[in-house]
Specification:
The protein is mostly helical. The protein has 18 helices and six strands. The protein has helices spanning 2-13, 16-38, 52-62, 70-85, 101-108, 112-122, 131-138, 143-160, 166-176, 188-195, 199-211, 213-220, 224-229, 236-268, 292-320, 324-336, 348-354, 381-406, and strands spanning 41-43, 49-51, 66-67, 183-184, 371-374, 377-380. Strands 1-2 form a two-stranded antiparallel ribbon. A hairpin with a 2-residue loop joins strand 5 (371-374) and strand 6. Helix 6 packs across helix 7 (131-138). It starts with a helix and ends in a 5-residue tail after the last helix.
């Protein structure tokens, strides 16, 4: 069995198309990593805007770790209100949030994310009020209770708009109550990995190219009749092909993903691993009570299950179709077309079904409240996607096994 696995493994990797796609993808992702780091910008406490690794150093210095206790929130709010009420540090310029240009550069920009986080906790969902009005009207109010009220109002709004059932709304209201007091600090490394959730779509394409000929290639070369006449042709050899597909999918996905994740964490640092996932989305309500590291690992595992799902579909098509290029084209269409479809364009059922398609990993973020309810059981989007795509990969692999094993040769 091990000899068969080595042979099939070697056959995939000796394909020139597979080699070119893996190398091309790797080079492209190297460019993406470098480009994304070069595009990081930050403003230091002197008002100087810098980019690249210099900006990373500035963020590490300005985004100091702190507990957002009520006293600390009051301190930040009072400092902003003091500046806009002081003629020497205020202005009528809305673009500068009513601060003078100097204070806008030296106070607001270095603390932009923190001020945004606080402002959006106090702001009424959908109100569109600016930071000045929000902080003036809510100065001294309980920050933790305001966060809970904001989240619950948003959930109620989703229920009213038909995007959540009453059971799902009750579930999320219970979840947001579990969110602990906010902590703040530098977390850029984890943030950048979560920003790269579109990249697994490219990895899916590479995997489809590699595994497309696994069965269809035997049809094209007329080796299917030879294989099925061998002693273990209808059992071990077919099983070996499926095992190798799963190994190839796993190795390529985790190999590429762990490499670019390690580069991000190596260059940007692992600081902020235990900070709340809410820091990734300071402007919106987030119902998940996870740390940045937990959220990142969770998202990468979700992307892996999505990748298994498309690999299973490709494997099935390879057993059905007799042309590997036809398999690749159809697989690419199945990956690409859903990326142009928005869950918001349809109703409740449309959004739930669309979200389970493999390429929708590109749309996933922890600000989503999509859930699936079965009776009184509520399942979150990532959990349901892992269940559906995991079982789907197993089912498609089983069907492909029987289709190739039972097909009529020389037809």
């Amino acid at each position: 069995m091990s000899g068969m696995i080595k042979y099939e493994w070697k056959k995939i990797w000796t394909s020139r198309l597979t080699q070119i796609s893996v190398i091309g993808c790797s080079l492209f992702l190297v460019f993406c990593v470098c480009s994304s780091i070069f595009q990081i910008t930050a403003t230091d406490e002197n008002g100087q805007t810098v980019s690249g690794m210099t900006a990373v150093e500035v963020l590490q210095n300005t985004q100091q770790r702190q507990e957002l206790t009520q006293d600390r929130v009051n301190e930040i709010v009072d400092q902003y209100l003091e500046y806009i009420n002081n003629p020497d540090t205020s202005s009528n310029n809305e673009a500068y949030h009513y601060l003078s240009q100097e204070k806008y550069s030296t106070f607001y920009l270095p603390n932009k994310e923190l001020l945004s986080l606080i402002t959006n906790v106090y702001e009424e969902p959908g109100s569109g009020s600016d930071i000045k009005d929000v902080l003036e009207n809510n100065a001294g109010k309980d920050f933790t209770q305001a966060r809970l009220d904001r989240d619950q109002k948003y959930i109620q709004l989703l229920e009213e708009n038909g995007k959540l059932t009453s059971i799902e709304a009750d579930y999320w209201e219970g979840e947001v109550k579990k969110i602990s007091e906010y902590q703040y600090g530098y977390h850029k490394g984890w943030d950048m990995i979560l920003d790269a959730l579109t990249w697994p779509v490219l990895i899916m394409m590479i995997i489809c190219i590699g595994i497309a000929p696994i069965f269809s290639g035997e049809y094209q070369s007329k080796c299917d009749s030879l294989i099925l006449c061998m002693k273990y042709g209808k059992s071990r050899l077919v099983s070996t092909k499926i095992i190798v597909v799963w190994l190839f999918t796993t190795c390529v996905y985790w190999g590429i993903t762990l490499i670019y994740s390690a580069v991000y964490l190596g260059l940007l640092g692992t600081d902020g691993a235990d900070l709340p996932i809410q820091l990734k989305y300071p402007a919106v309500s987030v119902g998940y009570h996870l740390s940045m590291a937990e959220g990142t690992i969770y998202a990468l595992i979700l992307a892996y299950f999505f990748t298994l799902g498309i690999a299973g579909i490709t494997l099935l098509m390879s057993a059905v179709l007799k042309n590997a290029y036809g398999v690749i084209i159809i697989a690419f269409l199945l990956i690409i077309i859903p990326t142009f479809l928005s869950p918001d364009t349809g109703g409740y059922t449309w959004s739930r079904m669309l979200s389970l398609l493999p390429s929708k990993i590109a749309d996933f973020s922890f600000q989503s409240y999509i859930t699936y309810s079965i009776g009184k059981v509520v399942i979150k989007w990532p959990d349901m996607a892992m269940i559906v795509n995991g079982f789907g990969a197993i089912i498609f692999s089983t069907f492909s096994y029987w289709i190739f094993k039972k097909h009529q040769v020389n037809k």
